[in-house]
Amino acid sequence: MTNTTLLLNSYKELLEKRPLELGDEATPLVEDNKSSIEVVDTLADAELLSDAVKVLAHALSKPRAVWWASQVSRASFPEGTVPTDDEEIALKAAEDWVRKPEEDLRRAAMKIADDGGYKTAACLAAAAAGWSGGSMGSPEFDPAPPPENLTSIAVGSSIVLSVYDSNVEDPKEFLVKAFKLGRALADNEIEAL
Question: What backbone torsions phi and psi does residue 10 show, to the nearest 5 degrees?
Fold first, then answer.
């Protein structure tokens, strides 16, 4: 289920698999029978990019969405600066899982995000990988699978933190760039790692 993309599914089907809520301005613009990618484009055309990002995060495959969050987080650092050690560890954990979506890497990403308190865009990117499947509990307990939309929520939250809780000079311009990167991933114009 990890590699499933819901871009071409109807928005109604997306909501059934990965529930999400849009802002008051976005809701009336959405037609349930349109494909998820058409809804993304409708919202973007209406300059409701935060809502477009949210739908795109829910519609992309989990590996692509996690990669998107990690790359947006990396891009949020001003030129000449780098992520802190903790942020780099979290981003590397997310990206390692994208490259090789295996259980041990998923669990490692989940632990790093938990240790970081989910406070940064990088930690949320790692959380997105950690919540992509498997169990949220320790291996010695009965499996407790995460809700199907938890990765998407973490991706959207990571991108929002990258845009608004970082040192980017122009958050609105940066949001446009973040959206364009996600849209290029959706169109297979670029590959995730």
Answer: -65, 155
